[in-house]
Write a structure and sequence with these properties.
Rossmann fold, 6-stranded mixed β-sheet
């Protein structure tokens, strides 16, 4: 591999396998020697039928699950072999997450929800983080809703809060698992536009799991998983 090209790799997985219940009658390998690379600044759609391994792959990339074997390098640092505390710190500082269900805390305002990752990782919310949270909420069109609680926001607005929350600590990579799967078409488009805008303005990489072919077609690259293997990897 060209060293200059390698320096642009944000994540690189090589021959990754994931087996559940190893050694038991219910043993099942769901990822079969999968290799995948995502460079800095890419916007990637991850598609495939149910049971293809998409969520397992996203969980491994997100340091929420350990692979059984293989290599996973995040920003040129090998993740395999790191302890739980080290993985937690990498996850908090290098990754952002947006899920199908926003998981906002109902007792807190939109602004407080966005600053929560900073509070958890740093023990406090600095003036800089607070200002950044306000900027992000304004950027996703919620300047007038910062002090509203989730129950006062529409589904699309709640997902935009979740996007701002994923970006508040300025991660190089955001992982989005069906981020529009619980929304109507108009709200889905609204949320996706905001994700693309944040990608363009901040240069953050996105890997988006989606069953929506319309959204997948609007990503820059499409990776399709079938039965735990990459069946297609091409620009859209």
């Amino acid at each position: 591999m060209n060293p200059a090209k390698a320096s642009h790799a944000l994540i690189e997985l090589r021959d990754v396998r994931k087996t559940y219940n190893p050694g038991l009658p219910s043993e099942a390998e769901v990822l079969h020697g999968l290799s995948l690379r995502v460079d800095r600044g890419e916007f990637v759609a991850l598609i495939g039928p149910s049971g293809s391994g998409k969520s397992t792959l996203l969980n491994i990339v997100g340091l929420l699950e350990r692979m059984t074997s293989g290599s996973y390098r995040l920003q040129d640092e090998e993740m395999q072999g790191l302890g739980d505390t080290e993985l937690t710190m990498r996850r908090r500082t290098r990754l952002g997450f947006v899920f199908q269900f926003h998981h906002l805390l109902p007792a807190f305002t939109a602004l407080e929800n966005v600053t929560m990752p900073a509070l958890m990782s740093e023990g406090r919310v600095s003036a800089r983080r607070l200002a950044h949270a306000r900027e992000l909420l304004a950027a996703v069109g919620l300047a007038d809703a910062m002090n509203k609680r989730p129950s006062e926001l529409s589904g699309g607005m709640q997902q935009r809060v979740a996007i701002a929350r994923a970006l508040v600590h300025e991660p190089p990579l955001v992982l989005a698992d069906e981020p529009t799967g619980n929304l109507d078409t108009a709200s889905s488009d609204e949320v996706f536009v905001q994700m693309r805008r944040m990608h363009a303005e901040l240069g953050i990489s996105f890997v988006v799991v989606t069953h929506d072919p319309r959204l997948a077609a609007r990503c820059d690259r499409l990776v399709e998983l079938i039965d735990g293997r990459i069946a297609r990897d091409e620009p859209t």
